[in-house]
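Example record

One chain of 151 residues, shown exactly as stored in the release files.
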Amino acid sequence: MSPAGIPTFEQFAAVRLVALRGYAQQLTADAELSGALVEEALIRTGLTWSRVIKDGDPDGYTRATIVALYLSRWARRRDGGSSGAGEATAPRSARLRRTIMVLCRVDGLPDDQIARLVGLSERRVRRIVAEMRSRSLPLAGQTQQAWATSK
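Predicted structure tokens for this chain:
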């Protein structure tokens, strides 16, 4: 901790690394891609640490960065394809749906925040959430309860 009781970036990264990897794994269902996303998100968080810590939610900032990177990776790869496994070659709609469910079930975010993060209207987000809930689709690999205890 710094003299003012504020964690350093290195302390934050050490404490949150495993949980952030798990979060990215929920989004991607791909260990290699999730590791790359976390690495890039932590680099970006570290570069803007003074602003991030001043805003008071470094974990939220880092998770939002992971989400943005995940969705943008699809945009960059969609035309050229990908040799990666898992979600790396998934259609955009599948990635958006998976992201929305993680933001809803794991983060517990309201529809308006989810809509801002993924670039859709609130109405579209609500429709996707309702559709997914009606199908009772589980998150890959972990239950919501397990994720709640790792936060």
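Notes: The chain has eight helices and no strands.
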